[in-house]
Amino acid sequence: MSSSSSPSVLLNTGVQMPLLGLGTYKLVGPEDVYQAVDAALAAGYRSFDSAAVYRNEADLGRVLKELLPKHGLTREDVFITSKLGPKDQGEGAMEGALRSLAQLDLGYIDLYLIHWPGTQGRVVTDQRNPGNRAESWAALEKLHAQGKLKAIGVSNYTPAHMRELIQSCKIPPALLQVEFHPRLCQTELRKVCEEYEVCFQAYSSLGKGELVTDPVVLEVSKNCERTPAQVLLRWAVQQGVPVLPKSSNPDRIKDNARLFDFTLSDTDMDRLSALDCEHKYCWDPSEVV
Fold first, then answer.
1. Could you tell me the end-to-end alpha-carbon distance of the chain, in angstroms, rounded to an integer?
2. d(Cα 180, Cα 200) in Å, to the nearest integer?
3. Which of 244, 255, 246 lies closest to 20, judged by CA?
4. Helix/strand/coil for 227
């Protein structure tokens, strides 16, 4: 199964990106990365999400070079995402992005994101943040023009950060990656993304594991004979939102991939969406100027 035959979403660059990707946050060390990537490729995953701050880019690149031939795949069959570390925001962005390229060592990166709207070591209200974001974006635009970053985007941006970027950029962002699950439906952000043709991608679909025990999620999963995790992931992909479930457990990696052979009813979709209470389990970027 090549990336072209797995369910995907069209980015504004004209490239297809798989709806399902493996999140690699907390996958540390060559053995863990190898086991997870091997299981993911076997289960049909064709997208892998890393970041400079995950400290696993080099291991991911090495492991993919070893495993792709085993699974009858080439570099072109997989979609690799990585992200600029907050310490490199601003004048360090070019060097940071080139470091990610060198660590992964896969020729190019399919999608590269600014990981965080702020700058490491600066307070959230620091007035230099907008300038640093603009400088980072200009560096990414240069590398995109050179073909080293096939698509560029952002992560953890608020509606205000998105509008600021869209008004000033030469190349519009291809994607925004944020926390998204039934308790955080991100209505305003999704509208902004829709308006500007930016792909909206979810992370933390399971609410750091807390949502799998929610009574509504459990009831829906029982009714459709699926795991709570599959229900939560399906809720997103059924809305056209790409997901990045993370796990180091081969069985769970396989289970999480079983999203495309069932459908949630409109009633179940509505019941899950009704859990929205704007609750964030992860970082809150709303205070970053």
1. 44
2. 9
3. 244
4. coil
Q: Other C-beta atoms within 10 Å of 148: how many?
A: 17
Find where tokens 């053995």 sit.
Answer: 31
Other C-beta atoms lying within 10 Å of the C-beta of residue 43: 18
The position carrying tokens 């590398």 is 143
Tokens of 48: 């892998």
pLDDT digits (tens, 9 = 90+) for 57-97: 999 999 999 999 999 999 999 999 999 999 999 999 999 99
Question: By the 8 A CB rule, do 162 and 137 touch?
Answer: no
Q: What is the CA 252 to chain-centroid distance, rounded?
A: 19
Q: Which two tokens stand for residue 57?
A: 């880019």
DSSP 148: S
E-strand ranges in the chain read 8-10, 16-18, 22-23, 47-49, 79-84, 111-114, 152-155, 175-179, 199-203
- Cite the active site residues: 54
